[in-house]
Amino acid sequence: MSYRPDESNAQLYAEGAWLQGAIVTGVLYGVVIVLSTMCWRALWPRARSHGTGYKMNRFLLCYVAFLFAVGTIYVAFNSQITQMGFIDNRLYPGGPSAYEEATSSPPLNTAFVVSDWCADLLMIWRCTVVYKDTRIYHIIVGLGSLLFLGTLITGTLWLVIVSTPAQSVSGWMSFSLLFPYLCFSLAINIFISLLTVIRLLYHRHRITKVLGSGHGTMYASFAAIIIESAAIYSICSLLYLVPYTLNSSISYAFMQLLGEAQVVAPLLIIYRIALGKAWTTRSTTLMDENSIQLRRPSDLPKPPQAAPLNVEVSFHQETARDESIRSPKVPYPMEYTEDYANETDVFGRAV
Fold it and tell me: Is residue 229 a contact partner of residue 266, using CB atoms and an 8 Å limit?
C-alpha cells in the first residue's frame, strides 16, 4: 500500500522545493538574529557616548533594528503562506505548489523589496565613502543615486502590480515582473561592489609601492569583506535567476532564501564598521588594528593637565664640633690660669 499522493513527479518536486526553501529561510533568520545581536553589542557603547562619530553609530543602530524588523516580517509571513499552502489549502487545484505560486502576500512582498532597497543603499553609501577624497566623488554620488532611483522605480512598480486584485492571483505576472527587477538589482550590486574593490586595491597598490608588501595587506582584508558580503546576495540572486530562466522548480526555494540573504549581507558590513575595521570619511587608511590612523590635530586626545606641585623647603642650622683638628700637645703639664684661658690657638679657637 502506497501513501504517495496522486500527483505527478514534477508537482511533488515543486512542493518539496517550496517546503525546503521555507525551512532554510528559517535557518537564515537565525543568522540574522545572531548578526543583529552582535551589531547591537558593538554599536551600543559608541552610540551612548559622545565621542567621534557617535551620530553615525546611532544611525547604524537604528538601521540594524530596522533590518531586523524587516527580516522578522519576511520570515513570519513566509511561514504563514507555507502553512496556508501545505495545510489550510492542501486540496487546492495543482497542490501546494500551485497555491504558493498563485498567492500573493502584500506584507511578504513589501518586506522583500524593502530589504533589497536597504542592501543596495548601504552598498552605494559605502562606495561613496571610499571615493570621498577623489575627483570623481560627485560622479560616483550621481551614478549611485541614479542606480538607486532605478531600483526604487522597478521595485515600486512590481509591488503595485502584484498587489492589484487582477494580478494578485496571477503567478505568471508576479514572477515575470520579479525577474527583471532582480536582474536590475543584481547588476547594481555587482557594479557597486566592483567599484569599491577597485578603489581599495588601488590604494593597496600605492601603499605597497611606497612602504612595501607588508603594509598593503589591510586593503585585501577589507576587499574580502566587500566581496563576501556582496557575494551572499549575488549568489542567491543567481541561484534564483538561472533556474528560473531554465523553467526549473528549484528556483522556488532560492527565491525564498533571497529575502533573508538581503538582510544578512548589510549586517556583515555593519558589523565590520562597528568593530572599527572599515573605511571612514576622516581617514585615508582602513580603521584596522594594524593600520596607521591619520587624524586631525583636533581629533587627537589632549594630555591631562598636571596639578600644581607645591614644594616647601626649610633649612635648619646645626653646629657640630670638628674633632679632626686638635690642638698641639705640650710636652709638659700646664696649669689653668686666667691668662691661659684668654689665649687662642693659631686657628682662632679658645684653648
Answer: yes
Query: What SS3 class is residue 84?
Result: helix
Taking Cα atoms as reference points, which of 40, 226, 206 lies closest to residue 123? 226
Question: Could you tell me the CA-to-CA distances from 264 to 31, 41, 129 in Å, in that order?
Answer: 7, 17, 21
Residues whose CB is less than 8 angstroms from the CB of residue 236 and which lie 6 or more positions away in sequence, other chains included: 254, 257, 258, 261
Query: In 10 A of CB 114, how many CB atoms?
Result: 19
pTM passes above 0.85: no
- Rounded to a whole number of angstroms, the CA Rg of the chain reads 39
Question: What digits encode the pLDDT tens for the residues 144-198?
Answer: 899 889 889 888 888 887 777 555 555 544 566 777 888 888 888 888 888 888 8
DSSP letter at 87 equals: I
Enter the C-alpha cell of residue 324: 679632626
Burial of 319 (0-12, 13-18, 19+ CB in 10 A): exposed
Closest residue by Cα to residue 15 from 96, 85, 78, 104: 96
Name the nearest CA neighbour of 32 among 66, 68, 59: 68
The H or E element containing residue 207 is helix 171-211
Which residue has 574593490 as its cell numbers?
197
